[in-house]
Amino acid sequence: GDSVTQMEGPVTLSEEAFLTINCTYTATGYPSLFWYVQYPGEGLQLLLKATKADDKGSNKGFEATYRKETTSFHLEKGSVQVSDSAVYFCALSGGSGAGSYQLTFGKGTKLSVIP
Amino acid sequence: DGGITQSPKYLFRKEGQNVTLSCEQNLNHDAMYWYRQDPGQGLRLIYYSQIVNDFQKGDIAEGYSVSREKKESFPLTVTSAQKNPTAFYLCASSPDGYSNQPQHFGDGTRLSIL
């Protein structure tokens, strides 16, 4: 079945540092890929998405490129802020099997940004 | 503003008791979902519904039940058969269950055992 693997946290960075959170996936077919963000005590919010190979999703300074050749969708931001502290989830849908439009999530990566 | 409302925010269950978590959406979405979130385990799908009066089991449906009598409502009952119910429960919706459109999430209900 489909699966998503993302780097284990927690990740602690100083303000204005560069952020990379690695995400790789296993799926057949042509899945869509997503990054969601969860702030403390809240639900998930869609951060960005990409629907086909070589697409780049971007939002609020975050970027991720859909790399089919490496089955990856790494999240990057050039300069993080304290307000970026949250848990980040990589997810896919439309990979394979029955109910393939359901989301398959990675386990999440907690990011803490210190002033 | 359109969105998903989950209630209550915190819920406590006694031994042998069933409890029901509410989820309402005013996004006019056809599909709705329930997830369970445990620390370090990401989100796992409990049940989903692609249309009114129809729903399917997800990966961890045992000990849970749902109904979908109205398009905007998808309540989840945690039954006494669920032996480890302590978790954060998230409800989500999407325009339909047949495409790769993103899901929208509520703010969750945290369930604990008394």
Keywords, please?
heterodimer, A: 115 residues, mainly beta, 6-stranded mixed β-sheet, 4-stranded antiparallel β-sheet, 0% helix, B: 114 residues, 7-stranded mixed β-sheet, 11 strands
Question: What does this protein look like?
Answer:
The complex is a heterodimer of chains A (115) and B (114). Chain A has 115 residues and is mostly beta strands. Chain A is 0% helix and 49% strand. Chain A has no helices and twelve strands. Chain A starts with a strand and ends with a strand. Chain B contains no helices and eleven strands. Chain B has 114 residues and is mainly β. Chain B has strands at 4-7, 10-13, 19-25, 31-37, 43-51, 54-57, 64-66, 76-78, 87-94, 104-105, 109-113. In chain B, 0% of the residues lie in helices and 49% in strands. In chain B, the strands form two sheets. In chain B, strands 2, 4, 5, 6, 9, 10 and 11 form a seven-stranded mixed sheet that branches. A four-stranded antiparallel sheet of chain B has the order 1-3-8-7, with no helix packed on it. The termini of chain B are far apart. Chains A and B meet through strand 5 and strand 6 of A and strand 5 and strand 10 of B.
List the helices and strands and how they pair.
The complex is a heterodimer of chains A (115) and B (114).
Chain A lengths: L2 E4 L4 E4 L4 E3 L1 E4 L5 E7 L5 E7 L5 E4 L2 E4 L9 E3 L8 E8 L10 E2 L3 E6 L1
Parallel strand pairs in A: 2-12
Antiparallel strand pairs in A: 1-4, 3-9, 5-6, 5-10, 7-8, 8-9, 10-11, 10-12
Chain B lengths: L3 E4 L2 E4 L5 E7 L5 E7 L5 E9 L2 E4 L6 E3 L9 E3 L8 E8 L9 E2 L3 E5 L1
